[in-house]
Amino acid sequence: MRVGSLLACAALAVTTGCRDTASPSMSTTPPTTPPAAAAAVRDPHSAARPEEARVTHVALDLAADFAAKTLAGTATLTIARTGSAPTLVLDTADLAILKVTDALGRTLPHALGARDAILGQPLTITLTPDVTKVVVEYRTSPHAAALQWLSPSQTAGRKQPYLFSQGEAILTRSWLPTQDSPAIRQTYEAQITVPAPLVAVMSAERLTPDGVPLPDGRRRFEFRLTHPIPPYLIAIAIGDLAVRPISARTAVVAEPSVVDRAAAEFVDLEKMVAAAEALYGPYRWGRYDVLVMPPSFPFGGMENPMLTFATPTILAGDRSLTSLIAHELAHSWSGNLVTNATWNDFWLNEGFTVYFELRIMEALYGPERMAMLEVLGRQELAEEIAGLGAGSKDTHLRLSLAGRNPDDGMTTVAYDKGAALLRLIEQVVGRAKFDAWLRSWFGRRAFTSATTDDFVADLRANLLGNDAALEARINLPAWLDAPGIPPNATQPAAAAFDRVDAAVTHFAAGTPASQLDTRGWVTQQWLRFLTRLPDHVTMAQLTDLDRAFGFSKSGNSEILFAWLRMAIRHRYQPAMPALEQFLTSQGRRKFLRPLYDDLMKTSWGPAVARRVYQQARPTYHAVSVATIDTIVK
Asked: Does 328 participate in catalysis according to the annotation?
């Protein structure tokens, strides 16, 4: 990202102390006036009243206590007030509020409201007329939903403990008091004190790469992010971490026992950033680094600015699962740069990102790879809709999640139905025009949050030209506010699947697995094969497949997952040890939910599910536990 010292800077650590000169718009002065449109949005998942007093900047000074499993210290909040607004309302969940003062240390009256099972407790602070900063002294709960404290035995290296946060959708309020709404964007800075020799990293510029030694043997790490982000993107990880630079502005970070394998897997990181920039404009965040997480991380990836968190389950050894990194990178534009204003608009983050991810993969690996990914995504969408119910409102793109946990809306619908809508628009107006509009959407709305209505208005004004006939061909109401997949959806196809489908036919007709033509197949083709096998496959055929292709021992998590689902359906006993190992060695919700659900639907599986879950539950993140608790009963 810069002159002379770039490589040395990249070698230090993720988001190093070198200044972000690749992002000239960065400033050290936090904004004090919120965008009017964002401030006007009513978020049903936040108690905040941003139209009266709004948090614009957060300064954290926290110490990590691994024995107590707490973060403790202060959050200093800079606020923008409308006139002499008398109160500031924050979102909290299970925080011990010890003291609230102004910047001069004068006590401010405050009160925690009634506890809501989903939203937590509002913290209402009474403001005096001159207050523009509020200091909250607090301590997190050992059971904070956003924080997972790992013992050394739960890490890859098994030598040091580990902490990581996961704030999406509304969990940030469980580790810092703020207005926890994606419409209320905030800049932040932090001082994080940790036990030596642990390293702290955050979704921000790292000002002290090696930490500042303290007299008591601990180290303090300092961070700064001068672009405003939604609170769910404020993220932290603390552990035994090493770094491998990929380019001047990209690096891979992980535990020492994992970092080299991860660096080899993500060798195309810089190429991905360049491909994304060529499509939709400059990368605005300076560095792009990837932190490979411990196995309990509940998601495939989390697009925290400057530092994507990624599951180790994508380390396949052949770079075949790196579309997930393309997805998280794409979020640097769709989600981080332009964010859904409420969780009812979640598709604006994920639908845009899946579309962008497909375009990155096409640019790097060709149209056939993109086509396979799109076909598989559409297949997952059809399965999701069937599970939710063809008429379910949860299959709309515009959701209605008031009174519900926003995690309920984080289904494949937002991802793949959203991407399918954008593919349709691309087809109707032409790729060149659509690309120009999407690039301008990111440029004009950079560092703001948007609603579905904002999207519709912008599309009409800046792409469709208020052409009613053109808009009728898209039929936005059918996509945004009606269930299922509209009939005008494009129908993706992948010629590379023709060989796969032929192999399925031959195998079903009795051809031995060893005689199938699988030369050169990539992960997506294997997934197509496993998900297209007929329901009447015999035990002998499953044994033949396992012997020929070693599915039960596969190091590719996606292939193993698809195989284990088939093994459950047919009660293929030789795969049961692999199933238990898979369920107890990683906590990715995408894998856990279907496997436990499949087990619970059989006559024999519930006992297995309960036994395995009892063992594994303490190692899962709260996000995964909340889901699996509803399945395994």
From this structure: yes
